Amino acid sequence: MARVFVDDAVTNGEPPYIDQQDPGDGDIGVSSDTDIVWHVNDDIGIPLGDWEDYVDFTVEIARTDVSGAITVSGTDPGYDLTFTFDPDDPLPYGATIEVTVDAEDTFGNTCQESWSFTVENDPETNVAPASIGVIKAGFVE
After folding, report:
1. Structural domains in the chain, sorted by start
2. Helical segments of 51-119, H only
3. pTM here?
4. Residue 67 CB: number of other CB atoms within 10 A?
């Protein structure tokens, strides 16, 4: 009788995970012309040439999609794929940007990561708040 041993990490795998988000979750004062970057990591690897079958993402402002171009780099299969989203237009000043990434590996293991950041205020209209001074007067009797 022959025994066959199967490595569970290869047949099942762990779900992919998303990290190295830039700008990061909760960042404030992000440049309006920033690119948005994140990494998708997986122990099995995601086919670089077919990444669109395994990774889906949205970049939104107030539930409205932001248009732009995506560049994906890494090795094939992608154990660590780098995604760079370049918005078509500068992000609106003061806007909160919400990013959601869903990833699936070739075995169907899935993950989702969401984060948000806030764009800088318009430097042309950003005025420091005025401070209120104290006036002291002396009375002579």
Report:
1. 15-119 (2.60.40.1220)
2. none
3. 0.78
4. 8
Long-range contacts from 6-13, C-beta under 8 angstroms, 24+ separation: 9/43, 10/44, 11/107, 12/107, 12/109, 13/42, 13/43, 13/44, 13/105, 13/107, 13/109
Q: Residues 83-131: pLDDT tens digits?
A: 999 999 999 999 999 999 999 988 899 999 999 999 999 888 865 554 4
Question: What contacts 24+ positions apart, CB below 8 Å, involve 25-30?
Answer: 25/115, 25/116, 25/117, 26/115, 26/116, 26/117, 27/117, 27/118, 28/117, 28/118, 29/118, 29/119, 29/120, 29/121, 30/91, 30/97, 30/117, 30/118, 30/119, 30/120
Calculated CA dihedral for residues 98, 24, 83, 59, nearest 10 degrees: 10
pLDDT score for 6: 44
- State how far Cα 133 lies from the chain centre: 43
